[in-house]
Amino acid sequence: MLIREFKRPDLKRVLEIESSSFDDPYPANVLVDLYNLGAGFLVAQQDNIIVGYIIFWIRFEDEGHIISIAVDPHHHRKKIGSRLVETTLEIFKKYNVDKIQLEVRKGNRKARKFYQRLGFEEKTLVINYYEDGEDAMIMEKILENLENSYNPE
Ligand SMILES: CC(C)(COP(=O)(O)OP(=O)(O)OC[C@H]1O[C@@H](n2cnc3c(N)ncnc32)[C@H](O)[C@@H]1OP(=O)(O)O)[C@@H](O)C(=O)NCCC(=O)NCCS
Question: Which residues are the signal sequence here (predicted)?
Fold first, then answer.
């Protein structure tokens, strides 16, 4: 499996995965806007087919934020999502990001388990976060960045 940067021709497959993964999928223009604004956008490709994607960016200079991730439901539990997050963490490290946050629907138990498995901790419940009134769980991971933690004394 290959993890690579998103290219415009990937959009159709990404939208298919998006709509098979979420009840409230991002519309095409939101994904394109994020891409044009410089958000990180990676895809997972297997046998020449896009099977997953992740979008992320850096806010407040040193805080990474995972905006969205989804894997084609036919390819769940093959560590594709883990590979996408791990590659994103490597990119964040290069930019000296030391804290990563994301929001996940309280009722999305699968995703909460997935992120916990990757070392994210559940921090704060934000009531009524989503348009349909569902609460969001803020999850956070602190990255061990050797450069930042070096202390000569
Ligand atoms: C969440 C998602 C991206 C995980 O992708 P994935 O490629 O299937 O995940 P992985 O194979 O890397 O899973 C790694 C670990 O996470 C946990 N996990 C993943 N899916 C799980 C599930 N359905 N139930 C319980 N634990 C799960 C498991 O511990 C798993 O390891 P294991 O298979 O050895 O037990 C995928 O389920 C998805 O696209 N969901 C719909 C979109 C979504 O909810 N995105 C997140 C919104 S913030």
Answer: none
Sort residue 103 into left (φ over 0), alpha (ψ -120 to 50) or beta.
Answer: beta
Per residue in 45-58, pLDDT (tens digit) is 999 999 999 999 99
Distance from the CA of 115 to the center of ligand 1, in angstroms?
8
In this predicted model, what pLDDT tens digit does every residue of 38-48 receive, in sequence order?
Answer: 999 999 999 99
Coil, helix or strand for 44?
Answer: strand
Contact 4, 45 (CB under 8 A): yes
Does the pLDDT value for residue 142 go beyond 80?
yes
**SS3 state of residue 25:** coil
In the chain, how many domains are there?
1
Nearest partner of 97 among 63, 57, 49, judged by Cα: 63
In a domain, 20, yes or no: yes
Asked if residue 128 belongs to a domain, the reply is: yes
At residue 3, the pLDDT reads 98
Contact yes or no for 57/35 (Cβ under 8 A): no
Probe residue for ligand 1, chosen from 110, 112, 126, 139 as the CB with the greatest number of ligand atoms within 8 Å: 110
CATH number at residue 132: 3.40.630.30
**Total number of residues shown for the chain:** 153
